[in-house]
Amino acid sequence: MRAGMQEGQADPGLYDFSPYRDRPPFSWPDGKKVAVWVSPNLEYYEIDPPANPHRKSWAKPHPDVVGYAHRDHANRVGHWRMADVMSKHGFPGSVSLSVALCQHHPEVVADANERGWEFFSHGIYNTRYSYGMDEAQERAIIEDSIRTVREATGQTIRGWLAPALTHTPRTLDLIAQYGLDYTCDLYHDDQPQRVNTASGDLISMPYSLEVNDHYGFFIYNMSPREYARTLIRQYERLAAEPSGTVMCIPLHSYLIGQPHRIGAFEEVLRHIAADGRAWITRSGDIADAWRAVHTGEPAA
Amino acid sequence: MTLDPSYLEYPRRALGYDHGLYPYSALPDRKPLAWPGSKSVATWIVVSLEWFPITPSDTPFRAPGHMQTAYPDYRHYTSREYGTRVGFYRLLDAFAKAGVKVSVAANGAIAQRYPSIIRDVAEAGHEVIAHSTDMNGTIASTLPVEDERALIRDSIAALCDVTGAAPRGWLSIARSQSFATPDLLVEAGIEYCCDWANDELPWAFANGLVNLPLNHELSDRQILNVQQQSVDSYAEQMLDAHDWLSTEAEAQGGARLLPLHLTPYIMGLPYRMDAFERLLAELAARPQTWFARGSDILDSFRSQM
């Protein structure tokens, strides 16, 4: 029997060691060197969520007006501004979705679906954390995610980014058991890698915290133009290395869709689209293309 | 481990918001607005004019910019006073030079302690809006509602005593409200607040109060103090925002709002003022700019509702 995460062990055993050097290069479709995917987080934060004993949601007593209103900007203004710029330059989205957005603001979800974007689950709300859930509870949010996205969009989710990046030791095994085939929660590589799960066939999809707009603006305190230059440097380096890399641009439209930021960001998309080395695509397509090349590899 | 079963229950998971304060509205679905003179970008400057007691209160929370060291914190007490005595007058002169009328969000304590400042503001044609009593006057749901009602009443009364007119607008300290605040503001005769930065155009609460979104992301505090960027970068970001909004307004029809939130002890420093004056001149030179006070924007918005 295959083993999943080794709970309580110093090495959780998520994947096997595989150094970057000497990996066989491979091409993405049409001979492209780097797969670029844009991942808008379409989220709903509750104004008065229940408390999770392991993590506080808002910094202030509810309502945390600045925190809530900032996120709300995404669903009223930011989404369309960001999405229009993406569509203009030929970038589809792969959406990290708070699935309750399908109930609260179906307009946003429908717009993304009509643009041909892919959806994966980012939990029910970004104010409901997985910490402390038992197995039945965690199964309930996975089943809810699959059902909710299917009803709202007709799509069957393939991926998972844990709500507010909160996990349990069984999350990866469970999503693999439900047939999901990629996780965005592991940051150990610039290429997809197989994940050790008790069943199923799960790969890690390179997402990014380092070039996430939230990190750019609030961890590294970059100006809009500095963030744009950072993305271009990230792209140029990955495109120059041996073929077969992945670059993800994770976004929140309440950040990147602000009027002082979106113009600089548009220049990044213009640059990548014009370069010619990028396969501009969605996360599920990257998983398929990677598997087509790496079918023979054992799932450890 | 297990969580209480209620953690997986979602009683407010339904169409629209999980609260009834205001209705949902997506910007692209709204009837386009137009500003006077066919200008596409209302450029709204709000200056916070604040008095920080050297004895800070943490109830319900300590205001941003408040005292930081052990008592007595001369360094922050006097630096904030510098903004009021010196920096604010630099800003007033800059506004006069550029021909800009602004909204000044003043603590009641400013009117009580320094009434000549409030008179200078009013005589220059700027608008005075209410901004709590002093910087110990923070609001959150943990503040008893009777205390919040009194705080709002006292803030407004202190300004009225000097200007002779009731302020139409309100800005909470740190934009922090309780669930009761919108109703208490209406009860006190306030017509608009600036606290909810969830949009880029005015909108109305369910109770009729209008919100003019004063985007905290575009504030001098956020960009210069929190994110530690230069004033040159700040000015570039404001111009980038203005350019984007005017282009968007032209492409999609309608009008946009660019809010600039200023703090005298942050922007009014000698080494920042030249860059800020150049920014004002560049904004004034753009044909799309409508420099407006909050009440001007409110009146225009209401006439189109």
Automatic annotation (TrEMBL), chain B:
It comes from the Bacteria. Belongs to the polysaccharide deacetylase family. This is Chitooligosaccharide deacetylase. The lineage of its organism: Bacteria, Pseudomonadati, Pseudomonadota, Alphaproteobacteria, Sphingomonadales. GO terms for biological process: carbohydrate metabolic process. It comes from Novosphingobium barchaimii LL02. PANTHER family: POLYSACCHARIDE DEACETYLASE, POLYSACCHARIDE DEACETYLASE-RELATED. Is involved in generating a small heat-stable compound (Nod), an acylated oligomer of N-acetylglucosamine, that stimulates mitosis in various plant protoplasts. InterPro entries: Glyco_hydro/deAcase_b/a-brl, NODB_dom. Pfam families: Polysacc_deac_1. One of its GO terms (molecular function) is hydrolase activity, acting on carbon-nitrogen (but not peptide) bonds.
